[in-house]
Amino acid sequence: MPRLEMPVIASSPKSQRNPALDFTKGALVLIMVLYHWINYFIGNEWGYYKYLRFLTPSFIFITGFMISNVYLSKYAVTDSRLRKRLFARGFKLLAIFVALNLSRIVIGPVLGAGVVVKNMLDPGHMFAVFVSGNLPVGGEKLASFSILVPISYLLMFSGMLMLPFRLYRYTFHLVCLLLLLSIGTLGWTGARSYNLEFIAIGLLGVVTGFTSIERINHVVRHSYLLALVYLCYLVAITFWDAPFLLLVVGVFLSVAVIYLAGASGSESNSAGREVILLGKYSLFGYISQIAILQIMAVSFRRLNLGIAGLPISFLAAFALTVASVDVIDRARARLANVDRVYKALFA
Fold this sequence. Notes:
Helix content: over 70%
Order of helices and strands: HHHEHEHHHHHHHHHH
Radius of gyration: 20 Å
Shape: globular
Distance between the termini: 30 Å
């Protein structure tokens, strides 16, 4: 049931941080390490990608959830700072995406990563990256960090919707429905836009975020029912792959399962606290893991360790991603300049 009251500015935003939500984001980052490791060390021919396709839309869903459940608890909908923050954060993510990929074009050939790096500035490639989101697979690599594009669009689009949301409390519900109908129409014609699908899933996250945390906690506590439904979902994608409808179902179920794990005493042990910390730095962790894996892919190829290098490379990628977050967290606590740079880029 959506909350109908208008949000107000919280008196103590930091106290409202939800460890289970941070755990969910952190766990998604760790699963993303597996996804990217498979990309770099096994390849696109791996036959089980359909079981990991929930990852990218889950990040975008969580972003949307935070817009309504977190941002709107800190700012009143009439507060202009909310729109400015959403626009600023979205623009920064888009700028980070462009900067990282321009760097990749320059550094990639130097590293000799073995991946064909296409010119992202080609008009056709720019359309694929920034409009449709239909990036090719295989050797052609138009862009890395592509998740940042739909997330940035979602943030800026949500900032725009805050204006009509002042007058009509179901603005996000209505726009989400229109996007879903547009996706259905495209599918009927045989066309598809991944960016449109991701933004729609992000708006589903916004709509879900209007539900109180207490209600969400009550729903996910039905662990046996959740496990049964998730098993049915796995069977469904085994037979029918992961079309958009099943992808949406997978996002809701996967996020719910991870959130339940985070709500079940994740702060009481060191591993859980580490995952929560990773969730607080989810964007940094996402970027650092790709940089780590790209360097490792080149290094392990030159070492030529064969099949023995696979478990070593995975454990190293996993450990280095966690270590990078620990390093930045300690550096921020001790060095004011590092903290300022981090906030300028990621906050």
